[in-house]
Amino acid sequence: MSWEYLGYFASAFLVVSLTMTDVVKLRWFNLVGCICFTIYGLAIEALPVAITNGLLSILNIYHLYKLHIEREPTID
Predict the structure, then answer these.
(1) What gap in Å lies between CA 23 and CA 63, rounded to an integer?
(2) N or C: which end of the chain has fewer CB within 10 A?
(3) Residue 72 banded pLDDT, cuts 50, 70, 90
(4) Structural domain span for residue 9
(5) Number of domains in the chain
(6) Is residue 76 part of a domain?
(7) Which of 18, 27, 30 is nearest to 64 (CA)?
């Protein structure tokens, strides 16, 4: 497999994520793109790419968790 295709795939997910009007969808698409870029960066031994996108993945997961907690109805 050519790692270049994974880079294009990741780029496409990041671009699509920026077209989303729903923040949750934006975060999910961005997360997939960041995970793909993390793998891509590790595969081509580009640590700045892998580290940056790995950290962005963690931030996306954190914000998705916060959004999930905010949307859950409370039981009184």
Answers:
(1) 10
(2) C
(3) confident
(4) 3-71
(5) 1
(6) no
(7) 27
